[in-house]
User: Fold this.
Amino acid sequence: MTDTLKVGAVVLTMGNRPDELRALLDSVAKQDGDPIEVVVVGNGSPLPELPDGVRTVELPENVGIPAGRNVGIEAFGPGGGEVDVLLFLDDDGLLPHTDTAELCRQAFAADPRLGIISFRIADPETGTTQRRHVPRLRASDPMRSSRVTTFLGGANAVRTKVFAQVGGLPDDFFYAHEETDLAWRALDAGWMIDYRSDMVLHHPATAPSRHAVYHRMVARNRVWLARRNLPLPLIPVYLGVWLLLTLARRPSKAALRAWLGGFREGWKTPCGARRPMKWRTVWRLTRLGRPPVI
Assistant:
């Protein structure tokens, strides 16, 4: 058994799923190997009663998903440095297997270049994995593990050295594409990302468009993502492809109006520090099956 890497967990909640949150924390407590330190961040809401030993942070307002998770990272010291690996888990998720944390320890210990692991999300009733939850273009077989270019926000493990080197999630994104922003920066710094089908998080199948701000945030943040991270010649190509893909999906008038409003907002508002990736990173992304034009 590999027990040299210290593992922590960050759970973000808005306080509206106390039963699911308690079940998730119970599943974390049952993990094999050394105990996992957990922090629960109340994102603009008071926290329910939690098990002894769980660290807590209550934020006075909803600061969004990436900023809330960043608060959770810092609860483990600057850049999460008190632990070697942090799990990020949705508050209505559940770890159905007790060996997930130990598999993470083994994977990170075996590959010093591995920076991020994306878990497989499966519906607890049907066991199926939605296509959008497989973080690659060739997503028809969710049971195939592979190297990938992004990861799933509420079902992953990150080596804390990644945060120390490239920083945390982009606070201002609030919701959508924050994982890809971090993934691109990590890949540019030489880290690798794995999708592991044997590391499972149970989570009810949902549609992302259930969030009222979905279409605006997705469009705005995609523009910010490109402006922050892509070499200048690729920005119009990447955004042009996504504009065409969005139109091809024939969204409703209301959805398209929100999307186009977000697209304009992405160009007119500050996107944060610009750190364009190296061209060799563009080539790495291409070899991994997802060139940064789609």
About this structure: The chain has a mean pLDDT of 95. The beta strands are 7-13, 37-43, 55-59, 85-90, 114-122, 146-148, 155-159, 192-202.
